[in-house]
Each structure stands twice: as C-alpha cells, then as structure tokens.
Amino acid sequence: MTDAAFEIAFKNVFGRAPEGAWSAPGRVNLIGEHTDYNDGHVMPFALPHATRAAVARRDDGLLRLHSADMDGGVVELRVADLAPGTTEGWARYPAAVLWTLRQAGHDIGGADLHFDSSVPVGGGLSSSAALQVVTALALTELHGVTGLSRQELALLCQSSENTYVGAPVGVMDQTASACCTEGHALHLDVRGLVQHQVPFDLAAEGLRLLVCDTRVKHAHADGAYGKLRAGCESAAGTLGLPALRDVAFDQLDAALESLPDERLRRLTRHVVTENHRVEEVLALLRAGRTRDIGPVLTAGHASLRDDFQVSCPELDLVVDTALAAGALGARMTGGGFGGSAIVLVEESDEAAVAAAVEAALPQVRQFATVPGPGAHRLW
Ligand code: ADP
Ligand code: MG
C-alpha cells in the first residue's frame, strides 16, 4: 500500500487526517539466540518488512487503536486508565508503550493510531517489537520528546513488554527495530549496550539469505521462555556470577563441572558457546569471509536444538533439508518453538535449496532478504 493509500486508510478509520506516519521493521537474528537476557552478544539485522503507523494526537485523553491486520475494529482506551494487565489482545502492545512512556515522565496524551504491517505476525520475525517501536517513535516525535536515544527508546519498549504485557523478553528485538541500519547487521553487546554496525552485503559476495517461516507456533512457547530465563539465572547464581555472560568460553568445562543439574549444564553450554559464535561471526564478517559464517550458523542451530531445546520438528526439517540441498549454513532464528529459520546459500543454489525446503514443508513461506533500514519517519 502506498503512503497516499495509507493516509486514506487512516482517514477512513478516524474521519480526519493523520499528522504523520512512521515505520519500524521486523528483524532476523543472524546469530546470538537467547543470549540477550544473559547479558551477552546478539547480531540481528532489520528486515525490509515493516510495521507502519499513521498518527494524530487527541486532546480528550483517549487512545484509539486500529490495525489493518486485526479483526475487531477500533480499540478505544482511556489514557488515564491504562494499567498493567488491564488491556486485552494486540492493543496491549501499543497501550503498554504509551503507559511506559508516561511512567518515565514523558507528557504524552491521547492519540489515534492506525497500523499496517508487512512483517508476518507470529512468525518469529518480531512483528511485536515492530509494533512497539513504531508506536514509541511516533508518539515521542509527535509530542516533541527530545533527548531519548534510539537505545533508550528500545529499552522503554522492552520494559513495556516485561511490565505491562507480562513477557520477560530481552532487549534484542526492540533494539534491532529501533537501531539497525540498511546494509548492516547490528552487533549488540547487551552488557553496556555497546553497538557496532557491521557491513553485511550478501549480494556483493554472490550470496543469498533465505528466511523460511514454518508457519507453526507451538502452544507452550510463552511459558517456556520464562522458565528458560529463570534456568539461566539460576545457573549463573549457582556459579556465583552476575550472568552466564560471565562464563569465559575457555572456562566452560570447569563451569559445567560445578553445576549440579543436567538441565542447567545444557542451558549454560548453549549460552556460553552462542556468545562465542557471535564473536566468531563478527570476526569473519570483519575479515570479509561471509561464506565462512555458514558452519557457525549451523552449529548455533544444533546448540539450540540439543542444549537449549527450543527448536521443533518443522524448524529441524527446514534446516536439515536446506543443508542437504547444498546450503552453506542454516539455523532457527528468534525464540524458537516454531517461527522462522534462516538459510545462507550461494546465489546459484538458491532455487534448488528453496525448492527442496518447499517440497519438505509445503506450508513454508520463504523469501530472500537483505538488511533494511531501522525505524524512521515516513512523512
Ligand atoms: P512475532 O513477534 O514473532 O511476530 P509475537 O507473538 O511476539 O510474534 O507477536 C505477535 C503479536 O503482536 C500479535 O499476536 C499481535 O498481538 C501483535 N501484532 C504484531 N503485529 C501486529 C499488527 N500489524 N497489528 C496488530 N497487532 C500486531
Ligand atoms: Mg515477538
């Protein structure tokens, strides 16, 4: 839908013109899974797919929300009544952002917001973070809030999901949507929130990256996340460390020996080796050896499948099929239990690999992608 059609869609819903429109992307995580809440390293990049918001302020204290992607029409809330746990359905994501901004002392009142998105919803590509970040950017810019960095904006969005939506997520997805730049992967060291934009130009090297959405989301995904996070915190506590990030890669065996419980050993081994894989990928990209990241991605998948145990049969099938058909590397991306896998292939093998994946899992939705821009104002 063009910008003009998007503006008309807002008018059709709210009967007046929007004051502006913003866009925030979904993301793929190249490497560094379940490491963000362990104070570790991640390396996502923004998808060209994004969620848009057309917005106009209101002076009557109402927050009115509409999404082209959801049934049920306009959701109307009173800004003064917003409170954690009180909002149902998709509207809790933008409501949470507004509540959190106000809690942080930003004087933001009512608004009409109309959303649409090209990010597959529930596909492990962070449509939820795109929705949060586009809301936060639109409301802060429209209300003239200054002095809030993109990283701070992402932290507010994470906090809104932790507190208001009730999901104990890390900060990767929101940071990716807010801070990524076109043509780059974002290396984020979550401890200290140090960012590096890492050039990631697949086409120049004759490579393609396929995103394969399995279109499954297993039901236990939400509860499992909190248990995994608690397990990691318990392992770090047992080791007397602030976070699993503090286990050095060359000290892993010693750390494993001091953990009493097989599950905690598995979780620890994943987080420590995964942090190491992020550093390996970073070094390879900086050395111009993009092809060589393939085996590191595949090793990351094995670790998520066997040690962290967050893969599922559909993700394993995509990864195994792609590798058997000649892919350079493949892994699940995102939290797991469904969602998407990424596959690195030579340009010349793209069609054959995609065909093999589709034959193995006919419901799959696949596309080749490149790093797109982070969140920005459209007009
Ligand atoms: P993912 O972030 O992997 O796409 P999640 O389950 O974390 O999956 O987030 C999906 C939820 O985010 C949806 O169920 C809905 O509540 C909300 N959401 C995402 N995109 C939109 C959209 N375009 N319009 C309305 N709600 C959306
Ligand atoms: Mg999400």
TrEMBL record:
It is an enzyme of class 2 (transferase). InterPro entries: Galactokinase, Galactokinase_CS, GalKase_N, GHMP_kinase_C_dom, GHMP_kinase_C_sf, GHMP_kinase_N_dom, GHMP_knse_ATP-bd_CS, Mevalonate/galactokinase. Residues 95-179 form the GHMP kinase N-terminal domain. SUPFAM superfamilies: GHMP Kinase, C-terminal domain, Ribosomal protein S5 domain 2-like. Transmembrane segments: none annotated. Residues 282-362 form the GHMP kinase C-terminal domain. Keywords: ATP-binding, Carbohydrate metabolism, Galactose metabolism, Kinase, Nucleotide-binding, Transferase. GO terms for molecular function: galactokinase activity. Pfam families: GalKase_gal_bdg, GHMP_kinases_C, GHMP_kinases_N. Its EC number is 2.7.1.6. The keyword Transcription does not apply. Residues 9-57 form the Galactokinase N-terminal domain. Belongs to the GHMP kinase family. GalK subfamily. This is Galactokinase.
